[in-house]
């Protein structure tokens, strides 16, 4: 017998915060969106990156996010023949500012002695510093290689977006250096880490990236 998915809970309040929490307030939902900010993921990828989540709960959360329009489910053709999940255009517009605010809130709660730093945390150290005002006139694609894991995304006139086209800049770095460059305990440590980060692209494109993401 198949398990019956429980109905989504609702606060049943005519309030924008309550309505938002009806979608985003369930356990694991924001962490799934965090993973998809790093690019398209298979179901099995999400299971690995979210240890502790039950398989039926992951399936339920993905369905809820798909129904809400925040993610897309794509069936890739043979020989790959797999299902991948990614942020939708609406997801790219709405999710990064939410994660940016929550990350800012949670930053002071982190244990500075906790190691190692994951590749995703290194990517978040870049992308969650995005300044839409500085990016108002910018359209460009970017690639970030962190400890052997690749992330791709774009900026489209003041908004983060899914990767498209040839990257204008490729950033290569360790997760530790990216996090230290952003949150290092001293200016000297931040500058030293930043010098170890490699930026490959035309000088103007690199300058624009560094301005928009405060690098």
UniProtKB/TrEMBL annotation:
It comes from the Bacteria. GO terms for molecular function: DNA binding. Residues 15-114 form the HTH hxlR-type domain. The keyword Translocase does not apply. The keyword DNA-binding applies. Signal peptide: none annotated. Keywords: DNA-binding, Transcription, Transcription regulation. PANTHER family: TRANSCRIPTIONAL REGULATOR, MARR FAMILY, TRANSCRIPTIONAL REGULATORY PROTEIN. This is DNA-binding HxlR family transcriptional regulator.
